[in-house]
């Protein structure tokens, strides 16, 4: 029996083998759209790169390995991966999701798929009773994001999975903020794990790519059909870059976590900061759940300046030098964002404020620079 690799080894070796052509240790970039056949259907497993590509296949095997899953699927972006999951559903089906999820996810659900007859319920998932109350005979899928973007709420994956199994529903978990280094949702009963691999998995702010990982063979077959039929696949270069990024995921995430803790504690003690959202604090509403399902608490956090002052928040993000004001997260460099006007601008103001995404909220993706340099940058910007 083949010995199961521990996570730090799986990032490097999981699902990988030397390339059969010349023994290349890293999978080559198969920059080709098509493959020679000796007779119609006579090929070596690859006929057209929308359907299969050796570089993408190597990435998909790695994705499955690090999420402790059986099947990986790579897509052109995280939203393309989500799009494929939504295409499992039929008009009239209903979906329950978190009420503070990423703005792009909310936009995909409400502006695209509601128009095709799907119905979405957005509830606070900190309390499982809210989820249970939203389930009806048309519910087919529960979409969880944990920790949530940008409020850092933590959802109990195992508790939701017990609910989905009892009601014969699918459970999909957006694991982008945590990464498989910190949590593996399939281990807690999820059916589908989604990543914007653009973020921590690729890790260097130079790729846009998405992924799904599942265990069930039938579910994989359905999603693979959608992947090919809809065609939102990544190219071999992006697949190669993401695979290369995954090989250092464990090393990078360890530093992201260390720096995230240092920055969160600094901000929490700062007299000009009113509130810091980070699941590592004992005072976090679901800290106990985070401790149960996460290995550490990550490098993402959000905060509000004293008095919830919008102008103060804008001044801070404009004054930052080492933290770059930019969309996205999870790269080696530290980024700052203003969710109300950037990542969550597509959510109506009244709706986003209900979940805590106020105009004065600032989100930080803490990178792997020297922690003291990051604190010095924040100190300068806040003063």
Give the structure's gist in a few sentences.
37% of the residues lie in helices and 15% in strands. The protein is built from 14 helices and twelve strands.
Question: How would you characterize the overall build of this protein?
Answer:
By secondary structure, the chain is of the alpha/beta class. It folds into 2 domains: 240 residues, Type I PLP-dependent aspartate aminotransferase-like (Major domain) (Aspartate Aminotransferase, domain 2); 134 residues, Aspartate Aminotransferase, domain 1 (Alpha-Beta Complex). 37% of the residues lie in helices and 15% in strands. The strands form 2 sheets. Strands 1-7-6-5-4-2-3 form a 7-stranded mixed sheet, with helices on both faces. The protein has a 5-stranded mixed sheet with strand order 8-9-12-11-10. Helix 3 runs parallel beside helix 4 and helix 12 crosses helix 14. The longest helix is centred in the last third of the chain and has 20 residues. The chain is globular and about 75 Å long.
Please write out the topology.
Elements: H1 7-13, H2 54-66, E1 71-75, H3 78-86, E2 94-98, H4 103-113, E3 119-123, H5 128-134, E4 139-145, H6 157-166, E5 170-174, H7 179-182, E6 192-196, E7 210-214, H8 217-230, H9 236-246, H10 249-268, E8 273-277, H11 287-293, E9 300-305, H12 310-319, E10 324-325, E11 335-337, H13 349-354, E12 362-365, H14 371-382
Radius of gyration: 21 Å
Beta content comes to 5-15%
- Class by helix and strand content? alpha/beta
Examine the coordinates and then state which fold CATH places here, giving the name of the CATH topology of the largest domain: Aspartate Aminotransferase, domain 2
Mean pLDDT: 96
Largest sheet: 7 strands, mixed
The count of DSSP E runs of length 2 or more, i.e. the number of strands, is 12
- Write down the domain tally: 2
Terminal Cα span: 60 Å
| Physical arrangement of strands within the biggest beta sheet | 1-7-6-5-4-2-3
What are the segments in which pLDDT stays under 50 over at least 5 consecutive residues?
none
Question: Helix share of residues?
Answer: 25-40%
- Per CATH, the architecture of the largest domain is 3-Layer(aba) Sandwich
So what's the overall shape?
globular
Number of helices: 14
CATH class of the largest domain, anyone?
A: Alpha Beta
């Amino acid at each position: 029996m083949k010995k199961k690799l521990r996570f730090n080894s799986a990032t490097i070796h999981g699902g990988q083998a030397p390339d059969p052509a010349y023994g290349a240790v890293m999978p080559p970039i198969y920059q080709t759209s098509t493959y020679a056949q000796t007779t119609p259907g006579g090929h070596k497993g690859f006929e057209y790169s929308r359907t299969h590509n050796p570089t993408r296949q190597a990435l998909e095997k790695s994705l499955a390995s690090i999420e402790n899953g059986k099947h990986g699927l790579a897509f052109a972006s995280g939203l393309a991966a989500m799009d494929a999951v939504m295409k499992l559903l039929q008009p009239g089906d209903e979906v329950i999701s978190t009420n503070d999820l990423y703005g792009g996810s909310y936009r995909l659900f409400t502006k695209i798929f509601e128009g095709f007859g799907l119905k979405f319920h957005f509830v606070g998932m900190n309390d499982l009773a809210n989820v249970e109350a939203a389930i009806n005979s048309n519910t087919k899928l529960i979409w969880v994001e944990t920790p949530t973007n940008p409020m850092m709420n933590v959802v109990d994956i195992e508790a939701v999975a017990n609910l989905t199994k009892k009601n014969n529903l699918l459970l999909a978990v957006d694991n982008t903020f945590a990464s498989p280094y910190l949590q593996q949702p399939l281990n807690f009963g999820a059916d589908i794990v989604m990543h914007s691999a653009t973020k921590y998995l690729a890790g260097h702010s130079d790729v846009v790519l998405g992924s799904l990982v599942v265990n069930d063979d039938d579910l994989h077959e359905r999603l693979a059909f959608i992947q090919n039929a809809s065609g939102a696949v990544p190219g071999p270069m992006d697949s190669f870059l993401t695979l290369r990024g995954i090989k250092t995921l464990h090393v990078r995430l360890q530093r992201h976590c260390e720096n995230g803790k240092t920055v969160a504690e600094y901000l929490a003690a700062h007299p000009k900061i009113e509130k810091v959202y980070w699941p590592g604090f004992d005072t976090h509403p679901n800290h106990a759940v985070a401790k149960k399902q996460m290995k550490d608490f990550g490098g993402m956090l959000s905060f509000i300046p004293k008095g919830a002052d919008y102008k103060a928040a804008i001044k801070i993000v404009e004054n930052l030098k080492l933290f770059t004001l930019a969309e996205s997260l999870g790269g080696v460099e530290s980024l700052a964002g203003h969710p109300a006007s950037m990542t969550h601008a597509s959510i109506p103001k009244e709706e986003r404020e209900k979940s805590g995404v106020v105009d004065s909220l600032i989100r930080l993706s803490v990178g792997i620079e020297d922690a003291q340099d990051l604190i010095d940058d924040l100190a300068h910007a806040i003063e």
